[in-house]
Amino acid sequence: MTYTHFTFEAGADGIALLVWDSPGRSMNVFTAEVMDEIEAVLAAISADDAVTGVVVTSAKRDFSGGADLKMVEALLADYAHLKDADPEAAMQRLFVEGARMSRLWRSIETCGKPWVAAINGTCLGGAFELALACHGRIAAEGDFRVGLPEVKIGLFPGAGGTQRVMRMAEPQAGLTFLLQGQTVAPKKALALRLLDKVVPAASLVAEARAMIAAGLSAKKPWDSDGFRAPGGAVYSPAGFQVWPAANALYRRETHDNYPGARGALAAAFEGLQLPMDLALKVEARHFAGVLASPEAQAMIRSLFVSMQDLGKGARRPVAEPPATPRKVAFSAPASWAPASPM
Amino acid sequence: MAEAFIYDHVRTPRGRGRKDGALHEVSSVKLAAAPLAALERRSGLDTRLIDDVILGCVDPVGEAGGDIGRAAVFAAGWAIEVPGMQINRFCASGLDAVNLAAAGIMSGQSDLVVAGGVESMSRVGLGASGGAWPMDPAVALPSYFMPQGVSADLIATKYGFSRDDVDAYAVESQRRAAASWAEGRFARAVEPVRDGNGLMILDRDEHMRPGTDMQSLAALKPAFAIFGEMGGFDAVAIAAHPEVERVEHVHHAGNSSGIVDGAAAVLVGSKEAGAAAGLRPRARIRAFASIGSDPALMLTGPVDVTEKLLRRAGLTIGDIDLFEVNEAFAAVVLRFMQHFEVDPGRVNVAGGAIALGHPLGATGAMILGTVLDELEARDLGVALVTLCIGAGMGTATLIERV
């Protein structure tokens, strides 16, 4: 099998190495085409009896920056186009399409063969959600960050992030991680219980293979009967120590102006009371609602699209050739005088 | 429309709501049954004439769960024909039970109904029934959920009640409650709780601290500062009321209602049913209302509902002789008196829940009885009973002696 964005190499031990390396990009991101390929890879692996497990990693310096927000923009353009004629159909489409990644990660989680994410560098947003859906997560030691920064651009982790974080981390720590859109060093993610191991970069893939060879289960704890989230039941004395304060702190930190953070909070609260598939569906409902909000759309535009353009000097005069400054002069008006200490 | 009359009312003494409280050994059901048995004995009624037993209970779980109204009917040994139900509007449940009973009688669908409430706070525990309000973002956020004490502190801050103001109010509540006991003014209402053999378990309100003064209260630390500051609830209060720059935490156990065990029952009926049973009516239930109010202030519902009720009844505040405004927290009553400019000498004249305790589901029925006794003792006509309610509500009832 050959793919554009991935190389796939089945080992003699039955463990396949899936290496993400999108051509012509310095950073791997999820586009519709990448998602199509992952779908194809998953189908091929599931059909291939010789493959007993998968290690997924990246050939680039970083693992992945997450979803290409152009995909989100296209989704929103589609929604805007449809909603006047048929608001319900438009929302239905946003709900279904907005959850494509969530469904794909869930099919990896439930495919019956263990997947291990070998995180060699920065791993954010949808990519970290992919890692959370894998059955094992190992990161290389290094100066990079992993996490779910979606709320910072008005969204929230809508591909299972809210559900898996709350089923893995302690509730206060998990909520803080989600609501603040934290990105953390691998060691911190390990402490949060969002990673299984942090190892020297040189042994990353070997450790990932070893994890599968050691008999890593392809069944997630929350897909077994009797699973108990670290925070216990929502409606319990332990839950009462968490949720009233979480609501108050959400308001204190956001003034209730951020539908993304509110969606994450609601998805976490509601999802924890449900089995995983239904929890993901509820998360997707909140995600679609947040996507459709003017706040999220404005934040994506200003904080991501326009910010990227700004970084690339979009308004820079074209005629002026680039120059590297060598000296900087500073001039002050005559009236200027340094402030004297009082 | 038929009229609804109060024929009798009884309450248990209020036991300290802890494991060392005298009523801790009494189950919720037996506690609820005690005033029913007393009403039967005092009225000599054939219980088959009673159309319903409506009991307020705020944490109706465990032994107080299911339908404690029907359970109390069995425990009291009443006729099997008497149905029972439990209702919950938090702290006003006992008064709402009376209002619901009155509604059935006024509409001609009931003749005699027993209404009241029960709460064994020592056995079931405050908040034991849980619920979505503080927990679920879908409710907690729009309702600006915060612990009630933080809301009480917000009221004090917004309306300018100092720590001295709320403490002075509490001292007076204790003084009045002690005087009421000393003068025997609770004698008719309070029926001792006895065991199955008739032996005394408790015959006096246990929470009172006669002799409480400003100095003893000054030693108490504000109870809700930690929730406000650490839990983020001060920020919620300020988000809802930005005119308050910071919340001054002034309430503590000494100027808030006491946690106690207790039950109460009121016999409500039509004129004809009372006459047929040979009973003398003591008061008419003239009007009642409930309302939703600012959920962040949470406990100012008595003001809103009183305005609504006065409009409904075509009365003004000056037409009311005596008021019972449940002393959930001192600031609740201070705000009520401030808003209506009523004479403190007409409000909670026998002492209130700060001194006597607030057995949540029962209190509304208890203070209705208290004010009726006070109307009679002072030969006055009209009283208004109101309670603040969690999540921002108020319920009020107007009674008039006949």
UniProtKB/TrEMBL annotation, chain A:
Molecular function GO terms recorded: enoyl-CoA hydratase activity; long-chain (3S)-3-hydroxyacyl-CoA dehydrogenase (NAD+) activity
Any one Gene Ontology BP term: fatty acid beta-oxidation
Protein name stated in the entry: Fatty acid oxidation complex subunit alpha
Organism: Methylobrevis pamukkalensis
UniProtKB/TrEMBL annotation, chain B:
Database matches in InterPro entries: Thiolase, Thiolase-like, Thiolase_acyl_enz_int_AS, Thiolase_AS, Thiolase_C, Thiolase_CS, Thiolase_N
Cited Pfam families: Thiolase_C, Thiolase_N
A molecular function (GO) term: acetyl-CoA C-acyltransferase activity
Keywords: Acyltransferase, Transferase
Residues at the catalytic site: 91, 358, 388
Residue intervals of the Thiolase N-terminal domain: 6-228
UniProt-listed Enzyme Commission number(s): 2.3.1.-
Thiolase C-terminal domain sequence ranges: 280-401
Family matches, as NCBIfam families: AcCoA-C-Actrans, PRK08242.1
Family of this protein: Belongs to the thiolase-like superfamily. Thiolase family.
Protein name: Putative acyltransferase
Originating organism: Methylobrevis pamukkalensis
Gene name linked to the record: fadA
